[in-house]
């Protein structure tokens, strides 16, 4: 695994005049599929900035979480479930879903923009650290379904508390390369905590929450697939019964 922020290692100042950033202290945990990236300001000469830890405006910490999962269902089945994922009993934290826009482009790909209302359920200590009592947060989500290439890409990011923490998530659904009757899900989340105390604690907490929600999300898809299958079977049974009565 690599840190996608390695490009931030450029030493020249960026267009805004702020010091460029350099990724340091990258530690890979192959078991958990997690990498930790502590980001500190660097001067244009490439050496660590002398601004020190008091320069909270420039200091942020990043954590990258990623995973892979195989569904024992064809791609079409999984995508139908993904489009009908909410509401479900596994993700009660998602308390609202609004479709803002949905359209087909000239290549036949379906683009969807949604706004999700979620209940983070933050512990009291975290609320104190963040300086907020807000519990409901909003997430913007954009997905693209390509039926020709058989690929769905879903990207989401929070639009609440962005001055403190950002969570950028990307999910990709594709047919399994070795078995078309299976679907491969690759998932990555980038957590950025900005200028708050106990940032490493918040990173770990957010990563743990994302990991738990990802597991629940996969369980939710299986639940939706099962519900769709039951509905289809019930419809077949009802149609068959009606045909017998007509005879």
Automatic annotation (TrEMBL):
Annotated PRELI/MSF1 domain residues:
62-233
Q: Which Pfam families match?
A: PRELI (PF04707)
Provide one Gene Ontology cellular component.
mitochondrial intermembrane space
The residues the entry assigns to the signal sequence are none
Write down what this protein is called: PRELI/MSF1 domain-containing protein
């Amino acid at each position: 695994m690599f840190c996608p922020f390695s490009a931030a290692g450029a030493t020249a100042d960026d267009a805004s005049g702020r010091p460029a950033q350099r990724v340091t202290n990258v530690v890979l945990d192959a078991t958990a599929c997690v990498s930790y990236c502590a980001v500190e300001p660097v001067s244009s000469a490439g050496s660590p900035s002398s601004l020190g830890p008091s320069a909270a405006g420039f200091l942020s910490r990043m954590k990258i979480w990623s995973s892979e999962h195989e569904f024992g269902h064809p791609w079409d089945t999984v995508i139908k479930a993904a489009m009908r994922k909410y509401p479900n009993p596994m993700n009660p934290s998602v308390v609202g879903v609004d479709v803002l826009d949905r359209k087909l482009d000239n290549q036949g790909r379906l683009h969807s923009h949604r706004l999700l209302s979620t209940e983070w359920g933050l512990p009291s200590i975290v609320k104190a650290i963040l300086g907020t009592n807000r519990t409901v947060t909003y997430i913007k989500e954009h997905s693209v379904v390509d039926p020709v290439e058989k690929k769905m890409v879903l990207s989401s990011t929070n639009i609440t508390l962005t001055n403190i923490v950002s969570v950028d998530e990307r999910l990709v659904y594709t047919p399994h390369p070795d078995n078309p009757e299976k679907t491969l899900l690759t998932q990555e989340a980038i957590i950025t905590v900005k200028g708050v105390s106990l940032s490493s604690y918040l990173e770990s907490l957010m990563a743990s929450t994302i990991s738990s929600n990802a597991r629940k999300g996969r369980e939710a898809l299986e639940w939706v697939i099962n519900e769709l299958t039951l509905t289809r079977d019930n419809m077949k049974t009802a149609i068959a019964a009606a045909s017998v009565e007509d005879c």
